[in-house]
Amino acid sequence: NAGVTQTPKFQVLKTGQSMTLQCAQDMNHNSMYWYRQDPGMGLRLIYYSASEGTTDKGEVPNGYNVSRLNKREFSLRLESAAPSQTSVYFCATLGTGEETQYFGPGTRLLVL
Amino acid sequence: AQSVTQLGSHVSVSEGALVLLRCNYSSSVPPYLFWYVQYPNQGLQLLLKYTTGATLVKGINGFEAEFKKSETSFHLTKPSAHMSDAAEYFCAVSALGSYIPTFGRGTSLIVHP
Prior knowledge:
The complex is a heterodimer. Chain A is built from no helices and eleven strands. Chain A has strands at about 5, 10-15, 20-25, 30-40, 40-50, 55, 65-70, 75-80, 85-95, 100-105, 105-110. Chain B is mostly beta strands. Chain B has no helices and eleven strands. In chain B, the strands form two sheets. In chain B, strands 2, 4, 5, 9, 10 and 11 form a six-stranded mixed beta sheet that branches. In chain B, strands 1-3-8-7-6 form a five-stranded antiparallel beta sheet, with no helix packed on it. The interface of A and B includes residues 31, 45, 48, 94 and 104 of A.
């Protein structure tokens, strides 16, 4: 089992470019999350999906969109990247009735 | 509403010394409490958690934490630090039925030889 996988691992964008971060899980978990991690700020929730077909905003959703393609996949899209979106992005999952989140390895994004 | 405060963004200890990372929380309902560890260039992984039952919880790599309701604390300890313990540590809180945990800002543990 791969657990939670994220692609790409690293990306450099120019301001205004768009890109999609991919997340996939083989744990059969219902809930999936996108976080960003910045120095001194901890993890901040961007969007989450409690189940297939539903998505909700988290703490810092501006500038992002998400798509829960199916139970396995949850993508994060930056339509017009800005330098303030330079960060490390983590995908996480949570199973129904469970308490522990499982995290992917992260995508490091640099916006110039 | 729930929140987490981790005292000290950086904690520095010598190898073999006691490790103490502090976490205080606020929650309007009985909390679930977690410590996650993040090694350089990796994702977070669970170190230990408290849900119900025994308030002293043991985790991986010799770490343990005690849930103290009266102090709203869940401090992480390890009797003897090892160089391999150098990492970022995150405290988190959630509640029964909630699938939105709240994370603290993290504490970077530095271990000196």
